[in-house]
Amino acid sequence: MTVQAKSPPRVMRFDGLSFAPRFAFPEMARVVEVAGAEDGSALAGGFARFTGARIPWQLRYDELILVLDGRLVVETADGRLEAGPMDTIWLPAGTDLVYSSENALVWYCLQPAGWSRDMDAAGSGA
């Protein structure tokens, strides 16, 4: 197994980040990853903006979400999780859920960082 070299420490300025559409609902979710597999890390992290969102999803990774602005609701089989500014939500891999928000900015961390690439390589799709 080849070990990828890690990228050096750096600062990413929020006002210099470029959010891109995400999921099959590009008008509802825009994200920017600031660190992840390309950095040689098993951990990925970034920002997501939700606008008028109702997005069904099944997690293929462990995820931790910190709400920075607005409100985020995550509906799971175990119940409805509502979070506002400075609240966090823990979601384990395998969770079927729906992300909902009128308007929210969140920070996310997930592991494994290369989950999408790994699924594509295995022919599973994302």
UniProtKB/TrEMBL annotation:
InterPro entries given in the database record: EutQ, RmlC-like_jellyroll, RmlC_Cupin_sf
Pfam family, one: EutQ
Domain of life of the organism encoding this protein: Bacteria
UniProt entry keywords in alphabetical sequence: Plasmid
Name listed for the protein in its UniProt record: Ethanolamine utilization protein eutQ
Organism: Tistrella mobilis (strain KA081020-065)
